[in-house]
Design brief:
The protein has 6 helices and 2 strands. It has 120 residues and is mostly helical. The chain is globular, with a radius of gyration of 15 Å. It binds a DNA duplex (13 and 13 nucleotides) through helix 2, helix 3 and strand 2.
Length: 120
Amino acid sequence: MNSHQPMKSQQQRVNRIWQVVQAIPAGRVASYGQIADLAGLPGRARLVGKVLGQAPKQMRLPWFRVVRASGQLAFAAGRAQAQEQKGLLQQEGVVVLGNRIKLDKFGWQPDLSEILGLEF
DNA sequence: ACAGTGACAAGTC
DNA sequence: AGACTTGCCACTG
């Protein structure tokens, strides 16, 4: 076992993902891959989808703010899940056209100016 | 052990 | 824009 690479339990990964998803501000959306990256799990976009599906409803996780990298909703247009997601997003002002969102308008990008220490 | 699956992504055509 | 391919990794039978 690589003792220099701390073993991360599956539960810890799940918790990291939930945290990041909670951090998405209302009115913006992020991609599965982006969530995975921010959670320190590059390349685990599919894991994010799985975890979202397993999250208990009572925790009020804003799962609907997570979409594909293309801006498409992850669910087929017209399916109940897609309709629900669309409705929740529109409630916070996100425009959903044909099962798709314009990421250049509504995509969430963690504030780089803060990370780089830039002032306004 | 191995093949199939999945709320994905990036590249190519 | 849409279809296909390959890479990805955890899970399941």
